[in-house]
Specification:
The protein is globular, with a radius of gyration of 23 Å. The chain is α/β, with parallel strands linked by helices. The chain has two domains: 10-258, TIM Barrel (Alpha-Beta Barrel), CATH 3.20.20; 268-363, Chorismate mutase (Chorismate Mutase Domain, subunit A). It contains 13 helices and eight strands. The chain has helices at 32-43, 71-83, 94-102, 112-115, 118-127, 145-157, 185-193, 203-207, 213-222, 249-258, 273-308, 316-332, 337-364; strands at residues 21-25, 48-52, 86-90, 107-110, 135-138, 163-167, 199-201, 227-231. Strands 1-2-3-4-5-6-7-8 form an eight-stranded parallel barrel, surrounded by six helices. Manganese (II) ion binds at residues 27, 231, 241-242.
Length: 365
């Protein structure tokens, strides 16, 4: 099946004044005062064009703060009237859509937990048939690009052409510095498949904490993402949800002004196809190195474990299995067998070298 989306470019429905699109607001609407105080301050940050707030909150376990519900939509409407910001909420079922439309929310977004379920996506898309409203679709929790694409396609087929994809990172079982692993190769691939689709990054849900927001936001811009969604709360320390990752509007302003927007000469229309492809290669190489580094990190963990338990470094049986499996997978993807063998060999050599170093360090102690 080929890929096709009928997209209205971002510039066709929102004026970002040359800056990447910035969406900000609290994780959750909590009180009218909190919503309005946050919005007033955010309206002073020139890059912010859309105000976000969760009204219905998906919680892992029942009993936590589950959102204020419909009355929060009245507060959002007041935000719009008072500040002129566009408003946006997460919707997870057709009833949410009805209420959001009734209260004149400007933009809907679909959360990561909803995008994993094609039944829900089908229901939501059907509820929007014939409605002209922009929809932002977060990546599904699990790193499955087809689920993400499927959701975009379902809304597009229902007639939604103002679409934005939001990259908010993925659940990853291994220890990593982020709440949700960015796996940048996935949004890059999405942009490669749909060059006209705006893709924005949500560093807040990737990081889960404040101190890494800037590096992730900068990386997103360097990878030519079209904007950022960043959570902001008038008083993050008392936020009812996602307190650790929210920043005050003042700190958001500082963060945004510290970002470097690298000018890409004539980037909009690449002079030659060749240049476009070279940029693609640069990005893929950056991802490739990142993945190799992550692999080496895990190798080191294994090395420490083996060393602590006096297990030998080289385990031939395991390595033979790895080679057979990787050759099979690689050949299926169209890679040359000899090339794969050489690649696996250098990676293995380096892994053994690192683990030997770990063993030696322990023995010299
Ligand atoms: C949110 O934006 O507050 C949210 C719940 O995000 P996600 O669906 O990405 O987890
Ligand atoms: Mn949140």
């Amino acid at each position: 099946m080929g890929y096709y989306l009928d997209i209205l470019p971002l510039s066709g429905w929102i004026d970002t004044q040359g800056f990447p699109l910035v969406i900000s607001g609290p994780c959750s609407a909590e009180t009218e005062e909190q919503v309005l105080a946050t919005a007033r301050k955010l309206a002073e940050v020139s890059q912010v064009k859309i105000f976000r707030a969760g009204i219905w909150k998906p919680r892992t376990r029942p009993g936590g703060f589950e959102g204020v519900g419909e009355k929060g939509l009245v507060w959002l409407n007041n935000v719009k009237k008072e500040t002129g910001l566009l408003t946006s909420v997460e919707v997870a079922n057709p009833l949410h859509i009805d209420q959001a439309l009734k209260h004149k929310v400007d933009i809907l977004w679909i959360g990561a937990r909803t995008v994993v379920n094609p039944f829900s996506i089908h229901e939501l898309a059907s509820a929007l048939k014939g409605v002209d409203i922009p929809v932002m679709i977060k990546n599904p929790v699990n790193p499955d690009i087809d689920l993400w694409i499927g959701a975009l396609e379902r809304f597009n087929k229902a007639g939604i052409s103002k679409l934005i994809a939001i990259h908010r990172g993925f659940y990853f079982f291994e220890k990593n510095p982020y709440r949700n692993a960015p796996m940048w190769e996935i949004p890059i691939e999405l942009k490669r498949i749909f060059p006209e689709l705006p893709v924005i990054c949500d560093p807040s849900h990737i990081c889960g904490r404040r101190d890494t927001l800037k590096e992730v936001a900068q990386k997103a811009l360097d990878l030519e993402m079209n904007g950022l969604m960043l959570e902001s709360h008038i008083n993050p320390d008392i936020a009812l949800t996602d307190g650790n990752q929210q920043v005050t509007p003042g700190n958001l302003k500082k963060l945004l002004s510290s970002l470097v927007i690298r000018k890409r000469e004539g980037n909009v229309e690449f002079e030659t196809k060749l240049e476009e492809l070279r940029t693609e290669i640069d990005k893929l190489d950056a991802e490739l190195l990142n993945i190799i580094a992550r692999r080496m990190y895990v190798i080191d963990e294994i090395g420490k474990y083996k060393s602590n338990n006096n297990i030998t470094i080289l385990q031939l049986e395991r390595w033979n299995k790895v080679v057979i499996n990787r050759l099979r997978t690689g050949i299926k993807s169209g890679l040359n067998k000899k090339f794969l063998q050489q690649l696996l060999e250098v990676v293995h050599e380096e892994s053994i070298r690192r683990q030997t170093e770990i063993f030696n360090r322990k023995n010299n102690r």
